[in-house]
Design brief:
The structure holds two protein chains of two kinds.
Chain A: H1 4-9, E1 14-17, E2 23-26, H2 28-34, H3 38-41, H4 52-68, E3 77-83, E4 89-101, E5 104-113
Antiparallel strand pairs in A: 1-2, 1-5, 3-4, 4-5
Chain B: H1 4-23, E1 27-32, E2 37-40, H2 42-48, H3 52-55, H4 60-63, E3 87-93, E4 102-110, E5 117-124, H5 126-193, H6 199-229, E6 238-241, H7 242-259, E7 263-268, E8 275-278, H8 280-296, E9 302-311, E10 316-325, H9 358-368, E11 372-378, E12 382-393, H10 396-402, E13 416-419, H11 423-435, E14 440-443, H12 446-455, E15 460-464, H13 472-481, E16 488-493, H14 498-506, E17 511-514, H15 519-535
Helix pairs in contact in B: 5-6, 5-11, 6-9, 7-8, 8-9, 12-13
The chains are: A alpha+beta, B alpha/beta.
Chain lengths: 115, 541
């Protein structure tokens, strides 16, 4: 099982979120690749960097995970679009992990651009 | 700052909703108004064979499975199927060959002001449709089997009818062909027996006569069975004298019984009515068969005919006739089959001169007359055949009209014409008439018969039915048409079906004699002719 720390150490764009799915951390590579600054994203929902059509599904799926603790999208690479600050969509390989913190979960992902 | 507890509550609500929608059997999808997929449930992912992440962001039309009869325009983004209306239902057939896969698709617009969208439901109806298909298949198959069976049965019925008609035709023809020479055998031997001759010759002639009689009875029995089976044998009810019929029948068997030294007795209960209405010929036939068998299968002792009557009403009576003998009896094992055709007697020594038709005819005649027949028998002790037959009781007026006329001697000056194409038959009749001191003019066809009647007065015509040039029925019809109503015509035919008798009557013939002609029958017919002459109105010449 890959940990958040291991993801953080990879030389890939990196983002971390708290138990509510709000962004708490991005790395330099993320900023340079997708144009966002931490200031832009801090406290914002992870859905901000997803296409419009993914947002409802993200919120519903995220909420379900909070109750059930099971997900189809964790711990394996996923090909998804990432929205840049300029609203351009870049095809990327997402690798998302979740870790327990107390009675909740925190999240992190690497987003390797594919094009 | 958002209320954290409220957010958590909302997350729980959303999570439960997501989990619940994921558990439903119907495939669900949520899209924007352009059909871009924004949410799917697990059933939908299974239905399209993609994960949710693979579906999100794509057009719905692009990921749905292909279906039969799909409008190609639908694949264009501006022409999706849901554009027909804001909501609707349609059915898609996904496969072209059985088992069919059928999906019912429903959609509805979700009018949220900021972001209107569409919700789709895909319901799998394959199990229902496949069950319906199986039912339809089974029904079609059943209908096909019924049609096939009906066709086969119709064909079998037609074949059976054709075979039956062909059998009836064959029997009628054979009967005619056999009766014609039999007429000569029986008629001539009948005449010879009346002549003086020595004992040896008389015995030989007697044998010829009896053999002819047996052959004739056999032909008649086969014809009767055939007619009964084909439903052609009809009842001909008329008023008759029961007492006289029983005396006649008994007298006919008295000789046979005395030769075998058997005591033959009639026990007629005093309350038996004398005059009845019914088919006396068939009653006579039943008694003939039963008494004939009794004589044939009894070597010593007695034969009794017991007749009793049960009044059902003032007009109806049940006649119970019992023929019992002290003969060889019938084995218990043979009793259930005794009334079937061609079941002869179990004792080979007693089966000579028996085709096994007599009892079958009796049983069928009883059935035809709404009566019944049964047997009680014990091997070595004898048999008792019981027949119950219903009859109508004749009224006084009916009795008078049918009372037989006294027999009288015949006027030798009678002008008689015999029309028959067969020389032997002509000769038989000529000889029989000669015994009564009567003579006849002989012609060979209907046309010549007509000419003779037109040229000189004729009192009585014996008209053969089947003749060359002009047959007897046509000749009779022609005579009546020409006004020859005072000529008495007696049909003479080797056909014995009652339909022939009716045809003769319809053509205007007065009487009917069946070949082979017997002297007693001829006398009876002449008696009837005499009676007719006495009652006939005298017309001005």
């Amino acid at each position: 099982m890959v940990t958040i720390e291991e993801l953080r150490r990879r030389s890939l764009p990196f983002v971390a979120a708290d138990r509510d799915g709000c962004i708490v951390e991005i790395n330099d590579l993320f900023e340079s690749t997708y144009g966002w600054t931490l200031q832009d994203l801090l406290g914002q929902s992870l859905s901000m960097i997803l296409p419009d059509s993914f947002r409802d599904a993200h919120h519903l799926g995220f909420s379900r995970f909070q109750i059930v603790g099971e997900s189809q999208i964790l711990n394996h690479p996923l090909e998804l679009m990432t929205i840049c600050k300029d609203q351009q969509a870049i095809n990327s390989e997402h690798f998302i992990v979740a870790e327990r913190r107390g009675d909740g979960w925190v999240f992190a992902a690497t987003l390797r651009p594919l094009s | 700052m958002p209320d954290l507890e409220l957010v958590a509550q909302l997350r729980t609500t959303l999570g439960r909703l997501e989990a619940a929608l994921g558990a439903v059997e119907e495939a669900l999808a949520f899209t924007d108004l352009d059909g871009i997929v924004e949410w799917t449930n697990t059933s939908f992912d299974r239905f399209v064979g993609l994960s949710r992440l693979q579906c999100l962001g794509r057009t719905l039309s692009g990921i749905l499975p292909d279906r039969q009869g799909r409008d190609p325009a639908e694949l264009r983004p501006d022409q999706p199927f849901w554009r027909q209306a804001s909501q609707g239902t349609t059915t898609w057939e996904l496969t072209s060959t059985p088992p069919r896969r059928v999906i019912e698709v429903s959609w509805a617009t979700v009018n949220v002001p900021s972001k209107p969208s569409l919700v789709f439901t895909f319901r799998d109806q394959s199990a229902i449709v496949q069950a319906q298909d199986k039912l339809i298949d089974a029904r079609d198959q059943l209908e096909q089997q019924v049609a096939q069976r009906t066709h086969e049965l119709r064909q079998a019925r037609d074949e059976a009818l054709a075979a039956s008609q062909s059998k009836t035709r064959f029997l009628a023809t054979m009967s005619h062909e056999i009766r014609t020479p039999l007429n000569a055998v029986i008629g001539m031997s009948d005449l010879l027996l009346a002549s003086p001759m020595d004992g040896r010759f008389k015995e030989m002639i007697q044998t010829i006569h009896e053999s002819g009689d047996y052959l004739l009875n056999l032909v008649n029995d086969i014809l009767d069975i055939s007619q009964i089976e084909t439903g052609r044998l009809a009842l001909n009810p008329r008023t008759f004298d029961l007492h006289s019929l029983l005396d006649d029948v008994l007298n006919l068997f008295q000789h046979q019984a005395s030769i075998r030294q058997l005591d033959l007795q009639l026990c007629l209960s005093p309350d038996s009515p004398r005059w009845l209405i019914g088919d006396d010929l068939k009653l006579r036939q039943i008694l003939f068969n039963l008494l004939g068998n009794a004589c044939k299968y009894t070597n010593q002792g007695e034969i009794r005919l017991v007749v009793e009557a049960t009044r059902l009403s003032s007009e109806r009576v049940d006649l119970m006739l019992r023929v019992s003998d002290t003969g060889i009896g019938i084995a218990a094992a043979a009793l259930p089959f005794i009334f079937e055709e061609f079941v002869g007697h179990a004792n080979p020594e007693q089966t000579n001169q028996s085709a096994g038709l007599g009892l079958a005819i009796c049983a069928r005649l009883c059935q035809l007359m709404a009566g019944e027949i049964s047997v009680d028998s014990s091997l070595g002790r004898g048999s008792c055949f019981s027949v119950r037959l219903p009859f109508a009781v004749a009224s006084k007026s009916q009795k008078r009209s049918t009372e037989p006329s006294p027999s009288s001697s015949f006027d030798s000056g009678l002008k008689i014409l015999v029309a028959d194409d067969n020389r032997v038959n002509q000769r038989v009749l000529e000889l029989m008439l000669a015994r009564l001191t009567l003579s006849a003019q002989l012609v060979g066809d209907g046309y010549t018969a007509l000419q003779s009647i037109r040229s000189e007065p004729i009192d009585l015509v014996f008209m053969d039915v089947e003749m060359p040039h002009l047959d007897g029925i046509s000749a009779a019809r022609q005579l009546r048409r020409e006004g020859y109503s005072d000529v008495y015509i007696i049909a003479l035919t080797a056909y014995s079906f009652s339909s022939h008798r009716q045809e003769c009557e319809a053509a205007g013939m007065n009487d009917f004699l069946s070949k082979p002609l017997r002297f007693v029958d001829l006398c009876a017919a002449l008696d009837r002719f005499q009676a007719w002459r006495r009652t006939k109105p005298i017309l001005p010449s």
